[in-house]
Amino acid sequence: MVRRGQRVGVAVSGGADSVFLLHVLVRMRQELGVEVVVLHLNHGLRGAESDGDEEFVRALAGELGVQAVLRGAEIGRERGNLEEAGRAARRAFFAEARAELGLDVVATGHTRSDQAETVLFRMTRGTGETGLRGILPVTQEGLIRPLLGVSRGEIRAWLAAERIPWREDSSNQETALARNLLRLEVMPRLERINPEVEAALSRLAAAAGRDEEYWRLAASGALEEVLDSVGDGEMVVRASGLSELGPALGQRVIRLVLERICGSLRRFTRGHVEDVWRLAVGQRGEGRLRLPQMDVWRSLDWVRFAVEVEERGGGAVGIAGPGLTIGAGWRLEVTEVKQEERRSREVVDSRYNKSIDLLDAECVPFPWILRGWRAGDRYQPVGHCKDRKLKDMFGSADVPCWDRPRWPMLECAGRLMWSRKFGSAAWAAAGPRTERVLRIRELKG
C-alpha cells in the first residue's frame, strides 16, 4: 500500500481504531521508509465532545512527534443523512490535504469489523455483486485501509495491553443510526449462529472483490465489441450486441458505460441498470429512460447514453446567396457548379454516405431557409413518384431518433427542396436543361 519515500496521511478521529493505526505506522515508519502526517476533521456535531477529540489528537501528535493538520467542518443536523454528509466532508478534506501537503496516500482506520458491517448493511439494501466488495483496501482517490484484516476487539485488546488511551464517540451508541444498530444488536445475534460471522462476511467481501476484477476486465472487452460511437458526454452501443452478451455481462457493460460518462456510479442504482437492460433487449426498437442526470434512448438497433437531453431542431437561418458556408449547428456549402462539373456527382465519406446534390437555381431563388426536421415534414425526393414522410425515410435509412431533430433541411418559399442523405426534391433538382446549377454539400467538422 505504501512505498519508501512516500508521505502518508493518517486519518485520526481519536477513536481506538485510528489511534491504533497511528501508533503502528509511527513505530514502523523507519522500517517502511515513510513520513507520517496526522489528519483530523472536527465535524462539530457533538459540541464540547468534538472539541475534546480535537485536543486529544493534537496532544497525541505532539507526543509522537508527527505533524498534525486539524480543521473544522460545518455539518448541521438539518442536512439529512449525517453519516453521508460526514463522509463527503472527510473525502473533501483528504483530497485537499493531499494536494496541499504533497501526501501520496491517506490511511484510514477501517477494520475487519467495519468491513463485515458494511457488507451486511449493503445486503439489506439489495446490493449487487459489486457492492458486496464492501470497503476497498485501496481506492483511486488515494485512500488505503491497512487494518481490514484486524478486528475491532483485537485492536482494543492491544491498546489496553499497551496502556494507550483513546476517545469514545458517544454517538456510536445511538441505534437510530443503521450502522450502530447493526454493530450493537444485529451482529451479536448473528454471532449466536456463527461465532466467526465477522470473518465470514470479510471473506465474502474479498471473494466479491476478486470476481469484480474479473468481470470488470470482461466488461471492458465486451464494451469495445458493442460500442458504435463515442462523443462528448455520450456513448452509443448496439442493442443486439448488448443482448447477445446475456444479462450477467450485459448489465455490467451498462454499468461501465454509465461510469465512464459520469465518472462514478454513485447516483445509479441496480434498478436503473436493470431498466436500461430491459430497454436494450426489448422487442420494440424504441423507448426512452430518464436516469439521474442521464438520458438513455433506444432507437432501432442502437442505445444512446447522454448526460444531457438535446432536443435542438426546427430552428431556422436564412441564406442570402451562393458561395457561402453557413451553419446553425450544421455546415453547408452552397456553390455554383461550373459547366465541366455538371455531369459529375461526387460522394462525401460520412456515417450516412451523403452525396453532393444539385439544384436548379431558377427554381429555388434566394433566400433559402436552413432548419432542422419538424414532425410532419414531407417531400418528393428525386427518383420517387410521390411525396414521402421524412419520418418514414428516417426509418428506412436506420437514422436513430436522437439524430432526427437536428437533421439539416433546406426550404425555399415554404417548400422543402433538400435534406441530408435524401437529396434534392424532384421539383427543385437540376436537370439536363438547367442553365445555372447550384451544389449543396455538407461539410465535416
Outline the structure in words.
By secondary structure, the chain is of the alpha+beta class. It has 3 domains: 7-204, HUPs (Rossmann fold, 3-Layer(aba) Sandwich), CATH 3.40.50; 232-306, Uridine Diphospho-n-acetylenolpyruvylglucosamine Reductase, domain 3 (2-Layer Sandwich), CATH 3.30.465; 316-442, Phenylalanyl-trna Synthetase, Chain B, domain 3 (Phenylalanyl-tRNA Synthetase, Chain B, domain 3), CATH 3.50.40. It is 37% helix and 21% strand. The protein contains 11 helices and 21 strands. The protein has helices at 16-32, 48-64, 82-101, 112-124, 152-162, 178-193, 197-226, 239-244, 246-262, 270-281, 390-396, and strands at 7-11, 35-42, 67-72, 105-107, 143-144, 227-231, 234-238, 286-291, 294-299, 302-306, 316-319, 324-326, 332-336, 357-360, 368-371, 378-379, 388-389, 409-412, 415-419, 423-424, 437-442. The strands form 5 sheets. The protein has a 5-stranded parallel β-sheet with strand order 3-2-1-4-5, sandwiched between helices. Strands 6-7-10-9-8 form a 5-stranded antiparallel β-sheet. Strands 11-15-18-19-20 form a 5-stranded antiparallel β-sheet, with no helix packed on it. Helix 4 links the parallel strand 4 and strand 5 (143-144). Helix 4 (112-124) packs across helix 6, helix 4 (112-124) crosses helix 7 (197-226) and helix 9 (246-262) crosses helix 10 (270-281). The radius of gyration is 32 Å and the shape is elongated.
